[in-house]
Amino acid sequence: MIPLASALTDTDTRSVLYIISFGLFIYGLSGLTGPKTAVRGNRIAAVGMAIAVIATLLVDDVQNIGLILLGVAIGTAVGVPAAQRVKMTQMPQMVALFNGVGGGAVALIAWVEFRDSDGFSIATPTYVAIFSVGAAIIGSVSFWGSNIAFGKLQELIDGGSKVIGSAQIQTVINVILAAVAVGCGVAIVAGANSEIFILVLLISSALLGTFLVLPIGGADMPVVISLLNAFTGLSAAATGVALNNTSLIVAGMIVGASGTLLTQQMAVAMNRTITSVIVGGFGGTVEAAAGAAGAGGGTVRSTSAADVAIQMAYARLVVVVPGYGMAVSQAQHTVREMAKMLEAKGVEVKYAIHPVAGRMPGHMNVLLAEADVPYEQLKEMDDINGEFPRVDVSLVIGANDVTNPDARNKADSPIYGMPILNVDESQSVIVLKRSMSSGYAGIDNPLFVNPKTSMLFGDAKGSVADITEELKAL
Amino acid sequence: MLVTNLSILVLSGFVGYAVISKVPNTLHTPLMSGTNAIHGIVVLGGLLLLVEGLSDGALNKVLLVIAVAFGTINVVGGFLVTDRMLFMFKEKPKDMVEAEPEEAK
Question: What is the ipTM of this complex?
Answer without folding.
Answer: 0.86
